Amino acid sequence: MFSKSKINEPGPKNPEIERPKMPEATAPKPQAEFSPSAPKVKAAASVLSSDLTVVGNLRTTGDIQVEGTVEGDIRAHLLTVGESATIRGEIVADDIVVNGRVVGRVRGLKVRLTATARVEGDIIHKTIAIESGAHFEGSVQRQEDPLSNGRSSAPVTPVTTAAAKTE
């Protein structure tokens, strides 16, 4: 009846016979070919606006941009703390960019405190960048895997003054 080899072979064909066969034979084929090879679209970051206050924990495998207030722990892939944001709780993410205020522990593979950042708490990181003007009070600890819950025996470096304060 229908076979792939006959459909795909070039050559003269009877137009009356092929028209009904082609839609049935080829319609499912493109869906099967394109579904597995279609690129996965990355979802946009979830944005918590400046007029929003969340009391409770947030957990996602995606990205979060906080512009409002969160009283609870946050776990995400990429966390951006906006300039108007305040977070009271532990934040854990692969990448963390702090532009606003965080009161609590910060754990991330890459942690960046911008010039407008205000952090009160310990930072556990693999890599860290602190821009001039950022305020930080707490301790800094480097770990190979800062996202794990276990505490390592690495020494803690206490920081008691505002880091890189320039005015």
From TrEMBL:
Protein name: Polymer-forming cytoskeletal protein
Upper classification of the organism: Bacteria, Pseudomonadati, Pseudomonadota, Alphaproteobacteria, Rhodobacterales
Sequence similarity: Belongs to the bactofilin family.
Biased composition (Low complexity): 154-167
Signal peptide: none
InterPro entries recorded: BacA/B
One Pfam assignment: Bactofilin
Renumbered residue ranges of the record's region Disordered: 1-38, 138-167
